[in-house]
User: Fold these one by one.
Assistant:
Number 1:
Amino acid sequence: MSILKVHAREIFDSPGNPTVVVDLYTSKGLFRAAVPSGASTGIYEALKLRDNKTRYMGKGVSKAVEHINKTIEPALVSKKLNVVEQEKIDKLMIEMDGTENKSKFGANAILGVSLAVCKAGAAEKGVPLYRHIADLAGNLDVILPVSAFNVINGGFCEAISIGAEVYHNLKNVIKKYGKDATNVGDGGGFAPNILENKEALELLKNTIGKVGYTDQVVICMEVTASEFFRSGKYDLDFKSPDDASKYINPDQLADLYKSFIREYLVVSIEDPFDRDD
């Protein structure tokens, strides 16, 4: 089953930023994919192509959309590639782009098309999307993913139930910080006015204990340390006026993480240091 047509558009994602959506057509119908994006971007990540500052404060994606509609689409249609040939299609787009970080077309353009192709490939094979992806990866055994809460006894449904209970009880606990403390960010997390790092962990630890899941729930941290890396050191108080005397070195930060692991239920720390540290 070859690709008949590809059409990209600019839409808005859940935080309200422009992103790319791709409609891919085959004889079996329409397959649509929208490109996600994180709040922070690493310097070694593939480049998401954005417009100049005159459109949506520099976050527009009309250039990426144009690359899909005027360059990628004609190439894929003319070559009559089968949608189950995921690797061949991805490789073609990467070769056409010709840059190490996909900066010509934009990773958001290439990914949007790739995702739509993947959905079409699953339909062509008559299997669920997760099964098609597992086949592409060579995974014979498929394990249903669970939430970030690590469950010792129980499966997916119980994990979701526990996560929901902790989340809603945490909301009640942090109301002491004021009405705005229960407002949430892009990822749905709360943002109370906490002064110390351990204060947040104490809140979580106490909430987990309050709902009776101390032995079933662990904590994962997403630090994104590159955001407060300053000249070889780390500014943990980066939201306050700059004071270099308060910066700590990598060893001191490592010791802090070790204390989190000892004193709390921390089992995973994502991006604990700067990318080049």
Number 2:
Amino acid sequence: MTTNDYLQIALFLGALLLLVKPLGSYMACVFSDAPNRVTRLGAGVERVLYRVCGIRPEEDMGWKQYTWAMLVFNLLGLLAVYALQRLQLWLPLNPAHMAAVSPDSAMNTAISFATNTNWQGYGGESTMSYLTQMLGLAVQNFLSAATGIAVLIAVIRGFVRRSSAGLGNFWVDLTRSTLYVLVPLSLLLTLVLVSQGVVQNFKPYVQVPVLQTTHVTETTNDAAGHATKHEVPVTTQTLPMGPAASQIAIKQLGTNGGGFFSVNSAHPFENPTPLSNFFEVLAILLIPAALCYTFGKMVGDRRQGWALLAAMLVIFVPLLLVCTGAEQAGNPLLHGLGVDQHASALQAGGNME
């Protein structure tokens, strides 16, 4: 490992730890039973949402009712994402005329996004329409992450409450997770990503000429069924477009798998600069780390929250160093091919970029 590696890791951990207390305190206020300045700011929006959806925010749910509400809600989300994929050919915002996703792939993806699973079995830019990406996958990124936060808050209340059989209201926790935590952070991160050049538009895919024409071999069958091979020149390439930045923000903050493009944040349109990469990596651990402090504050002993975070870091940091060292070393099979994998002024060394 190089000095630069250690400095980057130290900068990342320093930024993360600096944000833990303010964000953790903020989330403790968001989920507090007592009125406070944070919840008063969005109280009007909350009341409208509860009235439209027929929710009684004062209802205190027991663990069974809370669990059933969570399961039914996410089942409906799963079915909605599945339906969007199967019907996208006939729905708007499909400039690339993406076909309907196959039943097995649609179900696989719907389950993945409903359960906040880091799994992607499709190429985003070659499979999903803009509408499916926004209304299906991006929305579910919010809702699955909000569900996870809500369940954690219910668990914390289970530790704290002594005279109440209820764990809170799932719909209120879900709404507040989205309205006060995920949406504001996603808006900020989206603006940062757009400033770095991440794609955010509704334009059709763009055809551009390549710098150097290449040829590929194609095999076709003639009228008699005989296979023939011929060279086909490649003079253009397709650049995918779409509302990527807004989805990437919540993908990172909600620790969701499934990027707008098939290679996720390894794609230059999704992660074009070192600064965008730093913020995307920071976003992955920001909310989980801050929730440790939220736990400590809500149970009345901040030391418990710091202890949880310390336990996580004791596991995370050594493994991070091992992984960084392995990536920095590169692939030993390439040494025999004369590939220079040593860190220098012109390259980061190994598999690093």
Number 3:
Amino acid sequence: MRLSEHICLLLNNCFPKVKVAGRESPQAYTEAQYGWAQASYDLYAPFIDMKDKTVLDAGCGPGGKTVFYAEKGCKLIIGIDIDENRLSLAKEFSKHKKIQNTEFYQGSLDSMPFESDTFDIVLLNDVVEHIGRPILIKALAECKRVIKPGGKICLEFPPWTSFGAAHLYDCIYIPWCHILFSDKTLINVIKKLKPEHPTVGNLSYIEHFEELNRITINEFKEMISNLEFKIIVLDYIMILGLKFMRYIPVINKYWTRRVVGVLSK
């Protein structure tokens, strides 16, 4: 075992184990996602009204958040995801909740099967960081295409400099572990720890880590600028809610927990 792996394992033992909700089964994860949706909705609520609107949940996953939003009075909410396993869970959960105003489609976000100017609202919850760079640009352009004039794209994601951006919270508890250690070290430590984790579509836990696009705040800002989005709001959720940290150069990017954006054409 390499020295860096020993150090990582030793450091990992210094931090409390994190218990993430919904790890018992894919169904439990969907239920947990439904519970987390309120926090996401609260971020957008000042800028949108879902009542009687046609909404797209882009990258809907197992549909927990889709169903939550459906209960907010949408005329129709459509979930789209590339993973058929997740979509099966979404359909099952929607049926379980007796929701009538949902539809689910299998497809890639960079080529969506919808007419232009279809949706009042497009949601991208915890999706931006999971899409490869070239595809992400196309996916954002597609989201812009399918919203109506005056419609809004609502998104949130952890930038790569965020303390938990590696998505390894099931087994590596070190904040900013992906900044402190190389990919090779982290992957070997993951293999050593053999974590139990929820089903991540068709990806293994390591593949799920490797597919992250590692997008930073500045890279995202450049991307939406190049795509000529109108920015209604672009805000940053700071660790411990310490908003003043955003004004401290260098440190601010590491202290940003999540990026929240509301965009339009």
Number 4:
Amino acid sequence: VTIRQGEAVVDVIEHENYVEVATEKAIIHAKTLVVADGSRSFIRSRLKWDGVSRVARLIEVDTPENPAVTDEFQRRVAVFDFTPMTDGDLQGYYWDFPSYVKGEPVMNRGVFDSRARPEKPKADLKAVMAESLASRNRDLDNYKIKGHPIRWWDAGNELARPRILLAGDAAGVDALFGEGISLALGYGDVAAEMVADAFARNDFSFASYRRRLQNHWLMWQLPWRTRLAKMAYFLNYPWLVKIGWAIARQVIKLTRWRDPSFVPAEPPRLVTFN
């Protein structure tokens, strides 16, 4: 396996028998191409990929913390606060994630706005962030804001072309919570099977990619999460949110997710490259 690093892709051209990928240093003729370059996918844009753009919004800051006295570090928990959803137009939540950046303890704090209901007014993310930080004795003006879009999965979007597959954030993630790491692994699992099967059968149409994704033990959730997001973010009455979380709490008790030690994945497999 040849791994090329440190050279950006500058162009992609589709041909009948291969895909031409131009980088800063070389031109590569590939039998297949798996596009996994994030929500702002350059390759997807370059290929003028069809489909409705379903994009969530996100802003975040990192605040220095003392883990010895910070509750989230002590209890090893992350916080998802849906209160801002009931106070305005936010279609999402505020979060606190205890983290380490370059070895230093920080709290990653942010606001996620799904926009699963694009017809509704846009929330003022900076105002939501400022208010949430103020309630935690933090001033937004003291921190650098980072922001980026998240493309979420939509049933009508194109996921494959002959010799080309979309995967990970480039294809679309969870519209409900914006979660993409576990789903990226799921995309990779299916994409690897598709590529291996294409070479085995000499059929690079990738016509069954969507079906295989929807039959995957993890990826089948995506359509349901999108539907749930559109329902959950349609109404923002506080009493309705409380009822929803009360029901969710009881449902979780009936699943393995109630066990903190449960890992919903297969045992890791190590691959060594020489």
